[in-house]
Amino acid sequence: MALPAQDERTMPAVVLSGLDQRPLEHALTELHALTEQYGHVVVVCSQATPEPVVRRLHTLRSLLESDRIAFFRPDLPPLGIAVLARQLRQLASCDLSPGVLASAGRLLTHYIHAGAVLGSVARLDRVPVGLKAHAKSWMPGSQFAVLAHPEPQLVKIAPGVTLKGPEFSTWMLVARGQQTQGDWVGGLAGQWSVHGLREVPLPAESPVWWGTGRMTEFCGYLADLSVLYQLVTSVRQTSCHWCGLDVIGDRCVFCSATPPVHEPAPPRALEQRAPV
């Protein structure tokens, strides 16, 4: 889901829709045109993206024989994916090189708190669910609050029950699916001391990711471009030994190369003692 621009500097998003349903030639032409227009393309998609779409993406990259296309599939719920994509769109307006911008996604995921209020956890397989929670999910009216990232948490909603939130100020996005009882997320926003709460449509992949359509998804995130830029530029940058792009972290998002492992030098031979 492409979220609305955060500010006037936020770059527009390009949605690659129906990749597995359109003729291969049409998708190939579209991706080639994007690469030629912008120089580099970072494709952000969810772990819940259907496998035919993922295979088509890899096929397109192989046919184009391009090392200017990066695929990024962080382990975030769909609303968290949408937030991260918008943060990268914000940073795209800054003086960051393509390699740094693409690898910034891994850094920014650490500052995203993504979860949901669920009417059932019977089909939830993204977060550890105990047998007791599974049994309670079959009771009429039961609701659960789940934090999938950065640290998995699962609680049964009851008076005074909350989720551990970020230790820094955030904004919160809320996306509502089929109606859940009450406004527990609004209370959570107050406990997390968020700057504000905004509502957006529920991403299409959310019911698949969470295992139910009876849900309200939420995400706490950093919205200030200056804060995002400071986070990214404060990390040491290195050059990829394979493609030469400047990156942060231990893996280039474009060519997937990791720093070479240097074998330790053999110990120096013991000097031969002179005879007495």
Feature tags:
alpha+beta, 10 strands, Hypothetical Protein Tm841, Chain: A,domain 3, six-stranded mixed sheet, 276 residues, two-stranded parallel sheet
The CATH class of the largest domain is identified as Alpha Beta
Provide the spatial order of strands within the biggest beta sheet.
Answer: 5-4-3-8-6-7
Major sheet: size, sense and barrel closure? Answer: 6 strands, mixed
User: And the CATH topology of the largest domain?
Assistant: Hypothetical Protein Tm841, Chain: A,domain 3
Average pLDDT, to the nearest integer?
A: 86
Quaternary state reads: single chain
**Uncertain residue ranges:** 269-276
- Give the class from helix and strand content and strand pairing: alpha+beta
Quick description:
With 276 residues, the chain is of the alpha+beta class. The protein contains 8 helices and 10 strands.
